[in-house]
Fold:
Amino acid sequence: MKVDVRHASHPEAVRAYDTDTLRRHFLVDHVFEGGEIRLTYSHYDRMVIGGAMPLGAALTLTAPKAIGQETFLAERELGALNIGGAGRVLIDGKAYELSKYDCLYVGKGAVDIRFESTDAGNPAKFYLVSTPAHRPHPAVLLTREQARHLTFGEAATANKRSIFQFIHPEVCQSCQLTMGLTMLEPGSIWNTMPSHIHDRRMEAYLYFDLDADQRIFHFMGEPQESRHMLIANEQAIISPPWSIHSGAGTKNYSFIWAMAGDNKSFTDMDQIAIADLR
Ligand SMILES: O=C(O)C(=O)C[C@H](O)C(=O)CO
Ligand SMILES: [Zn+2]
Structure:
């Protein structure tokens, strides 16, 4: 299992980052590798993001040194959303079957976590997000149809999209983790424009369902000091709590968002007027 540790950056320091430095701190360019679990440990709210892509054999989620525990979920909770072929997650011997766009919540205290693909030729890709947790909540398997479905945006502003809230207080209990999926309609390319910040929570995005030759311009930074990174399919970004997080693709795409921090309120956002961005 590979673990990459990312430290937190002060917004004043980020103003001076060049492209490579921005990407080193905030881009996770290699989330999925066949037959491996890869993790990135962010010091923003100690969120861990990563990918588990099992092939022939099951992959076991063990506790890396960064966690400082005997087992990965000793003091953590986990969301796993499948963006690949069919697969299953085994939690202490109980199997949960996940098709593409299904999400599993796993609470604090689960010990033995394994990931399997149904067909190694069309492997499952489990996108993982984990945050510290203070109490156990039951495991919940959610299909996209069981998520809370909201629609936002318009074709005229190229931001017509569906938001599916999976790990959200009205759908599934968690300690601090929230997680969901946003899918843009063909012809719509903008997510979260007008953009927002929420200093109470950090956020991470996994961009996917993007053609290999297309890219997403991901905007970040303080609202009056915006920067951008070019993102390819199945790459993730870490968004500090003080940063905008907004993207424009050269084509439509989907992304998984996840947040952690002082509240689980999706609507607790400070909106930034487009005219105020710099
Ligand atoms: O398309 C969107 O807008 C989103 O998906 C917004 C993110 O979920 C977000 O930034 C939540 O704070
Ligand atoms: Zn946000």
